[in-house]
Design brief:
With 261 residues, the protein is of the alpha+beta class. The protein has a single domain, classed as Lambda Exonuclease, Chain A, CATH 3.90.320. The chain contains eight helices and seven strands. Strands 1, 2, 3, 4, 5, 6 and 7 form a seven-stranded mixed sheet that branches. Strand 5 and strand 6 form a beta hairpin. The radius of gyration is 20 Å and the shape is globular.
Length: 261
């Protein structure tokens, strides 16, 4: 409870590198360096959010682009954001074909330690998250869509985050009997859907898994801010502050290394 509220990203950070966890969540050190991928991804998310909210996609794309000042980042953004309008059109067809009662965009959710729903910023919030998009339809169905601006990955690599969303939505929307998970791969203009999940499976399998992951994360950071070097070090926003020596950092090893290179 000392590190609550937890989230999928917070759990993942604790398990990946306790030192990063302490920088970000214990010492609350502002990020000294923001990776370009993070800025671009945030801008694309903002464009999608505005477009789903009713802003014409070209206008939404232009407004989100304005926060990017680097030419290279703007060009990468332009490639990704070109997929926003087709995605919004696809969602429009879905809305017309289903009885959509409610659309959730950047929707905040939280649960208490006992699994009951609470407010995102409530003092008793134990686990929480923010849905990119969700659609309640046919009275007892919920489709959850998560936007991904990076390279396409297998579902298993994102399982904890996505199933955490189901735990949160099942607590908040007790009338929902079936859940669908969709991964919106922005660069590929594709939405990848999982098999539907019923509410009983969420309660029986996913809630215990989320609790186990939180316990493992708490144990990982219990010994203090240990550095865990790995392939993530070069993408870490706190790499300039990390006390680990250069020799302790992860370095790729190439079989064709040549001393003269």
């Amino acid at each position: 409870m000392i590190h609550a509220p937890w989230s999928a990203s917070k759990v993942g950070t604790a398990l990946r590198c306790p030192r990063l966890f302490h920088f970000r969540y214990v010492e609350r050190v502002p990020e000294p360096e923001v990776m370009p991928e993070a800025r671009i991804g945030k801008a694309v998310h903002a464009a999608i959010e505005a477009a789903l909210g009713g802003t014409p996609p070209p206008e939404a794309a232009a407004a989100a682009r304005a926060v990017l000042t680097d030419d290279h980042e703007q060009r990468r953004y332009d490639v990704l954001v070109a997929g926003v309008e087709p995605f919004v059109a696809r969602i429009g067809r879905f809305r017309r074909g289903r009885r959509v009662q409610r659309t959730l965009v950047e929707y905040s959710l939280a649960v208490r330690e006992d699994g009951t729903a609470t407010q995102f910023y409530a003092g008793d919030a134990y686990y929480r998250g923010i849905l990119d998009a969700g659609f309640l339809y046919d009275e007892d169905q919920l489709a959850v869509v998560d936007h991904k601006t990076g390279v396409r990955m297998p579902y298993a690599a994102l399982r904890d985050q996505l199933e955490g969303y189901l735990v949160l939505t099942a607590a908040a929307f007790r009338q929902v009997r079936r859940f669908w998970l969709g991964l919106h791969w922005v660069a590929e203009r594709a939405v990848e859907w999982t098999e539907p999940v019923d509410a009983a499976r969420v309660a029986d399998r996913m809630v215990p898994t989320v609790l186990d992951n939180i316990e493992a994360a708490a144990l990982a950071v219990d010994d203090g801010p240990r550095t865990n070097p790995g392939p993530w070090c070069d993408r870490c926003s706190y790499r300039g502050l990390c006390p680990a020596s250069r020799q302790d950092r992860w370095e790729p090893v190439y079989d064709d290394y040549d001393e003269d290179d």
